[in-house]
């Protein structure tokens, strides 16, 4: 459940900036500063921890992953799944003890999907933003910003972003599912201006010669 949820969190349905509704100006200013800082980077690589919890059972599962981003390219690595996107083609690689397969799709540049490469502009994509206040996370002062949408078909109606107050770094984000569960994603280590060659975002068939290929282009 959690394994697929991390992917869904990066694929939240969105709309254009023209449909942005009422928003908190202070929250918008903070988010713009965050977005501008990350768009100035040549690329970055980050490890993250993600947990799923409920009010009744507490934390149910905890796992880790890694994401690399360079412009419109990204690479997402989970325990048994990897996604490569070079801006034109996306490869979804599933690996287990029983089989390995990679599904290939063309990138729909007109799609409303949100991906790791544009997470920093989510606030521009049909979400209203509101600054809820300030708190401490991992001994750092953070802004807590709530994003909401009324767009039909959106996977999630609410997303909370936790922005480090001084450096304007995105530290974590929280998403609630439709049954009351909470997905919390926290960056553990972020390496900025990481040198990432373009081929890093392309699936390597030579190194995975026995993988089953499902080409949906």
Summary of the model, kept short:
The chain is mostly beta strands and 217 residues long.
Structure description:
- The chain has 217 residues and is mainly β.
- It contains 2 helices and 12 strands; from the N terminus they run ααββββββββββββ.
- It has helices at residues 2-9, 25-39, and strands spanning 44-54, 58-70, 73-77, 81-85, 89-95, 100-106, 128-137, 140-148, 158-164, 170-176, 182-192, 212-215.
- The chain has a 12-stranded mixed sheet, covered by helices on one side.
- It is globular.
- The two termini are 27 Å apart.
Topology:
Layout (H helix, E strand, L loop, with lengths): L1 H8 L15 H15 L4 E11 L3 E13 L2 E5 L3 E5 L3 E7 L4 E7 L21 E10 L2 E9 L9 E7 L5 E7 L5 E11 L19 E4 L2
Parallel strand pairs: 6-12
Antiparallel strand pairs: 1-2, 1-11, 2-3, 3-4, 4-5, 5-6, 7-8, 8-9, 9-10, 10-11
């Amino acid at each position: 459940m959690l394994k697929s949820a991390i992917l869904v969190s990066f694929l939240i349905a969105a709309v254009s900036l023209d449909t942005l509704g009422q928003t908190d100006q202070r929250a918008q200013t903070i988010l713009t500063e965050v977005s501008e800082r990350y768009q100035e980077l040549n690329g970055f690589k980050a490890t993250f921890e993600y947990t799923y919890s409920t009010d009744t059972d507490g934390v149910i599962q905890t796992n880790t992953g890694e994401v690399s981003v360079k412009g419109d390219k990204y690479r997402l690595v989970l325990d048994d799944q990897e996604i490569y996107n070079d801006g034109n083609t996306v490869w979804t690689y599933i690996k287990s003890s029983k089989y390995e397969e990679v599904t290939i799709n063309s990138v729909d540049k007109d799609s409303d999907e949100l991906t790791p490469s544009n997470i920093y502009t989510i606030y521009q994509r049909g979400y209203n933003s509101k600054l809820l206040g300030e708190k401490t996370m991992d001994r750092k002062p953070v802004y807590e910003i709530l994003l909401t949408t009324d767009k039909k078909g959106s996977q999630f109606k609410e997303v909370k972003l936790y922005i480090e107050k001084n450096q304007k770094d995105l530290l974590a984000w929280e998403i609630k599912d439709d049954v009351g569960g909470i997905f919390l994603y926290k960056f553990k280590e972020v390496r900025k201006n990481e040198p990432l060659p373009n081929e890093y975002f392309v699936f390597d068939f030579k190194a995975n010669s026995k993988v089953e290929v499902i080409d949906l282009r």
